[in-house]
TrEMBL record:
Protein name as it appears in the record: NAD-dependent protein deacylase
Cofactor: Zn(2+)
Annotated positions binding Zn(2+): C154, C157, C196, C199
Catalysis performed (reactions): N(6)-succinyl-L-lysyl-[protein] + NAD(+) + H2O = 2''-O-succinyl-ADP-D-ribose + nicotinamide + L-lysyl-[protein]; N(6)-malonyl-L-lysyl-[protein] + NAD(+) + H2O = 2''-O-malonyl-ADP-D-ribose + nicotinamide + L-lysyl-[protein]; N(6)-glutaryl-L-lysyl-[protein] + NAD(+) + H2O = 2''-O-glutaryl-ADP-D-ribose + nicotinamide + L-lysyl-[protein]
E.C. no: 2.3.1.-
UniProt xrefs under InterPro entries: DHS-like_NAD/FAD-binding_dom, NAD-dep_sirtuin_deacylases, Sirtuin, Sirtuin_cat_small_dom_sf, Sirtuin_class_III, Ssirtuin_cat_dom
Binding site for NAD(+): 27-46, 113-116, 234-236, 260-262, 278
Organism lineage: Eukaryota, Fungi, Dikarya, Basidiomycota, Agaricomycotina
Any Pfam family hit: SIR2
Family: Belongs to the sirtuin family. Class III subfamily. Belongs to the sirtuin family. Class I subfamily.
Species of provenance: Rhodocollybia butyracea
Length: 290
């Protein structure tokens, strides 16, 4: 299927305006402009490690000290940045009071693979500026399918709590700075790593690691099954199950629009392809440029 040229916003706007069940599937590229490392491609190394290899239950079992240092680095990086214009555009579009004039009587869900919390922060900001009671429903429009970086989960009792403390614990304080110094990895004892506030045993980051099941996947699949427009933002579409969502929408007769900084696997099947910074393209494409 031939795709539309990236400057052809008019045809996309018409499709957007007639869509009734809209989903955005977002990846690391959505947060790149905020300064969040993607850990994919050329930026895929953390210290001397393949970052993806650290995002597994096996890696945590073998070396919880190293894995917690990696996630402490990610936490501290995320705490220093703010949502960018792409996050803000998606958040504003999720508000019924705004979306009604762009895509009348439509439903909207953001399915994000990101764990950095920037999309929820952008939504909080958008809601704080709204006086329309109907917009409160948008609080349920963000699904963080790979978990949350600031959730801390017990390894035994499964207690989970949201924690944006910096540092998360004394033992990890300052370890994020070792990246720039190219220092050796300190061996932090279990007793100095984050502990469960409920039972006191070792805790883990509350994210979904490779090899683990996606929570609420059935809910996500139901939303995708109803979608007639899938907007893919900042993802190479290689990680399942999110990589298959766009294909599913097309198979059921819907349209797919891809927003990426560069070409990626499978984007030639898109109905619309927009290449460039999503923080520049998305506000315009969603009718929110001004």
């Amino acid at each position: 299927m031939a795709f539309q040229q990236s400057d052809n916003m008019h045809k996309f706007s018409k499709v957007l305006g007639s869509a009734k069940n809209i989903i955005v599937v977002a990846g690391a590229g959505l947060s790149a402009a905020s300064g969040i490392p993607t850990f994919r491609g050329k930026g895929g190394m953390w210290r001397k490690y393949d970052a993806i290899s650290l995002a597994t239950p096996e890696a945590f079992k073998e070396n919880p000290s190293l894995v917690w240092q990696f996630y402490n680095y990610r936490r501290e990086s995320a705490l220093k940045v703010k949502p960018n214009a792409a996050h803000a555009a998606i958040a504003r579009f999720s508000l019924p009071s705004i979306r009604q004039s762009i895509a009348p009587d439509s439903k909207f869900t953001l399915i994000t693979q990101n764990v950095d919390g920037l999309s929820p922060l952008a939504l909080e900001d958008a809601l704080s500026k709204s006086t329309d009671a109907a917009d409160k429903a948008a609080q349920k429009s963000v699904i963080e399918m790979h978990g949350r970086l600031f959730d801390v989960q017990c390894t035994e009792c499964n207690h989970v709590e949201f924690n944006r403390s910096s540092p998360i614990c004394k033992g990890l304080e300052g370890t994020e700075q070792l990246v720039e110094k190219n220092a050796m990895d300190p061996e932090i004892p279990f007793s100095s790593l984050p502990r469960c506030s409920s039972c006191g045993v070792l805790a883990r980051p509350g994210v979904v690691w490779f090899g683990e099941s996606i929570p609420h996947l059935e809910v996500i699949e139901d939303i995708v099954a109803e979608a007639d427009l899938c907007i893919v933002v900042g993802t190479s579409s290689t990680v399942q199950p999110a990589a298959s969502f766009a294909d599913e929408v097309q198979e059921q007769g819907g349209k797919v629009a891809v927003f990426n900084l560069e070409r990626s696997e499978g984007d030639s099947n898109a109905d619309f392809l927009f290449i460039g910074p999503c923080e520049d393209l998305l506000p315009k494409a969603l009718g929110l440029e001004n």
